[in-house]
Amino acid sequence: VKAHPGDVPVFWACGVTGIEAVINCKAPLAFTHSPGCMFITDLEVEDNASGNDKDLPEVYCISQDPLHYSIASTAAVKKIRCLENIIAVDPGNRGVKHLFSQDELLKACLSLSHAKSVLITTGFPTHFNYEPPEENDGPPGAIAMAALLKAMEKNVVIVTDQRALDLNRKIIKEAVEQEILQTPVPVISYQSNSPDSAVQFLCEDGNPEKPRFNHLIAIERAGMAADGNYYNARKVNIKHLVDPIDELFIAAQTLPEITTTGIGDGGNELGMGKVKEATKKHIKNGDVIACDVEADFAVVAGVANWGGYAVACGLYILNTCEIHDRYVRKAIGYPRFSKYKNWASALPSVAKEENMLKILQRHCVRSGVTASLAMEVDGLPFFDIHSNLIERLREETLK
């Protein structure tokens, strides 16, 4: 090959030989693959030769600081958007559709897919006149996410109120016995003893460069309002029942290596500060109860548990997407086809969620709207409202 002035050398090579070619040509500027690194352009590919959405990549920004992008096939993106639409219904006519923003679920799942360690919090003590005061929306969704994350070999920890530690540990133990979870999940509490308690809790030796968790998820967790109190939907202050786990999400805003997701159905849940203006405008008592603490991603659902189920399903969709899988692996190793069956077995199912609700019944954890111990969540019967929605999520995920 004879070189001419102005020529641009292009090497079609594997990740190993490509870097050697670039080093030897001593070009002032070059782009190449290298072991563990991939170059992906943000130029759109309009001519999809295969005509298959599974072969067409889409790029999404999932963090501004540090700048972090991820990719998935058009097919995977469409499926996750379908999940988002399935859970965005408003069976209680509370106005939650006004809190919805497209692709919050997608971006939350993309970020979680890259995480190695995840901290989940739940617990909304709305029934302050009962013992326990918790409602049964939240724990099932938290456990559904934990099951899938652990199947993907990520470290998972649940943090909750000190007064509810024993209850939640019993629930986890029974979830393992019922095979809703394959292995136990540690349940811990957070206590605020000093201004740097949150950073000390989240990072090894309080070092922001060594986070213990890459991602925090709050699902149906009581969220602090602008006045520093915590309110249920009826505008009752339940601050005396809530530990300041919000501090972890506030601290995470200053820690570049930690991303946060809030999952809720009323705007008064931790993380829903991202949609607080919409909550104040469209949700009953929103001007008082709106959570003031925001998460990077706000996943809104008609029932918060549904958001947890959708996150689990979204993670399965992404990690069985060959484009996303290759990116997460940094093109090292082989596709993880052998793991698909195990991941699928960890997905939420009607049978698992029925058993989960029965566990909560045995511990007198009540429905949020009615305080009933019947087979219902947020006043909606498990059969056929919740069961049908779970089936729809599974059908979309596994097709």
TrEMBL record:
> Member of which family?
Belongs to the D-glutamate cyclase family.
Leader sequence range is: none
Q: Give the D-glutamate cyclase-like C-terminal domain ranges.
A: 83-394
Q: What is this protein called?
A: D-glutamate cyclase-like C-terminal domain-containing protein
Q: Which GO terms describe its biological process?
A: glutamate metabolic process
Q: Which InterPro entries match?
A: D-Glu_cyclase, GLUCM_C, Putative_hydro-lyase
Alphabetical UniProt keywords: Lyase
Taxonomic lineage from the root = Eukaryota, Metazoa, Chordata, Craniata, Vertebrata
